[in-house]
Specification:
This protein folds into two domains: 184 residues, no CATH class; 193 residues, no CATH class. By secondary structure, it is α+β, with helices and mostly antiparallel strands. The chain is elongated, with a radius of gyration of 33 Å. Helices cover 56% and strands 18% of the residues.
């Protein structure tokens, strides 16, 4: 019999037992769909993580004063100042850009809409430190920082809350009672660890310092943070240690004393999220494999039942000249056809599931060819591995004993 004949016979046999075949294939369908969803989610998450690392500053280091409230002291033990920012830029060789930063919360009003995001008062160099991109408009420049210009850059969430789908460029908003002109909208960052990275606005630090409320009563040159960018390819740990050494010297901290400030790498948080995502991916992969194995066992079981039901037919085939390999091929191809059909259904379900996951998580939908190939090979492998034992059992039946079976 030709391959086409085997395929036609397998399809006919499966169609005659359509409900049984469909129920048997569920495990394989779920397993293949799981592989597709996992592959799409992993590719989409990796792309999103790479974008977030870039947005958070692939080469950024952020200096913050530590607070020891639990030790009976209030507020930062030391203050970060404008002079510290200047010293870091001048004396740490691998630091390319430095931006001062003041933070606070303020209500912004635009027409009848209002919203209370966090504001960041920063230098123009902040755009270089954190690779700031805009979906509309521009970032403010050094001249606007020096003059304390009343200009504002909106995060994507803030722009949506205040203006809906309309362009906010050159519109006036009131920020803590101060009229500010919108000059740009930052490109959407999404969320990291459940925190909305687009719920903020940015203004020149001089404007924030002179016109906006701050978290604490700040000294004239006090800062909340100092944002720095390391030269691409430089040793980040060496730059971090150089910053710490400079601040220890400037703040008169003796050797052996506890540091009262920290140099934080923003990408470490994203990397931690990535590690968590990788762990979850392995768990989901294990679940998909288990589903495939369960589906394979179900297929092997139904094929054993099929061999038992068709023993007399097998005997007749052997009596008229069918060889063992013909019987083996007949049942093995039937198992492979069943798994192929289940694999196709699993691919369709996986594509739909990947779309749902991408929409829910905000990740891009990425279906890599390797994922599709793995899913197809997995379903075919299940058919071959779990279909071989029943097929072999049919092939080695004694023709006389098979003919006696009714």
């Amino acid at each position: 019999m030709t391959l086409g004949g085997y395929l036609a016979e397998a399809i006919t046999s499966l169609r005659l037992n359509a409900l049984r075949s469909a129920l048997t294939a569920i495990g394989v369908i779920i397993g293949v769909a799981g592989i597709m969803v996992l592959g799409a989610a992993s590719a989409g998450a990796n792309k999103k993580i790479a974008e977030q690392i870039n947005a958070m500053g692939a080469d950024a280091l952020v200096i913050a004063a530590l607070s020891f409230e639990n030790a009976g002291q209030r507020g930062p033990v030391i203050l970060l100042t404008d002079e510290d920012a200047t010293a870091i830029l001048e004396h740490v060789p691998d630091i390319q850009h430095v931006s001062r930063e003041l933070d606070g919360n303020v209500t912004i009003i635009a027409g009848n809409a209002s919203w209370t995001p966090q504001y960041w008062g920063v230098d123009a160099s902040y755009a270089d430190v954190f690779n700031v991109n805009t979906s509309e408009g521009r970032f403010f420049d050094e001249g606007e920082v020096r003059s304390g210009a009343k200009v504002i850059l909106l995060g994507a969430t803030v722009a949506e809350k205040l203006f809906g789908g309309a362009s906010p460029i050159d519109q006036l908003v009131r920020m803590g009672g101060v009229p500010m002109r919108v000059i740009g909208v930052r490109s959407r960052l999404g969320s990291v660890g459940g925190l909305d990275q687009d719920n903020h606005v940015m203004v020149p630090i001089t404007t924030a310092r002179s016109r906006l409320p701050q978290k604490e009563k700040a000294a004239a040159h006090q800062l909340n943070l100092i944002d720095t960018k390391v030269v691409r390819g430089a040793d980040r740990e060496a730059a971090k240690e150089a910053i710490l050494a400079l601040l220890r010297e400037r703040k008169h901290i003796r050797d052996g004393e506890q540091d009262k400030f920290d140099v934080f790498d923003p990408t470490r948080y994203v990397e931690l999220m990535n590690a968590t995502h990788t762990t979850l991916s392995w768990l989901l992969a294990a679940t998909a494999v288990i589903s495939l194995v369960v589906g394979g066992v179900g297929i092997m079981n139904i094929m054993l039942v099929s061999v038992t039901e068709r023993t007399h037919e097998i005997g007749l085939r052997m009596a008229v000249g069918a060889r063992k390999r013909d019987i083996l091929a007949q049942f093995l191809i039937e198992a492979i056809v069943l798994c192929a059909a289940a694999g196709a259904a699993g691919l369709a379900l996986g594509l739909f599931g990947g779309f749902i996951v991408a929409r829910a998580s905000g990740w891009p939908l990425i279906i890599e060819p390797a994922t599709v190939i793995i899913a197809i090979l997995a379903s075919a492998g299940v058919g071959i591995i779990f279909g071989y034992l029943p097929a072999h059992g049919a092939a080695v039946l004694n023709p006389i004993d098979a003919l006696r079976r009714e």
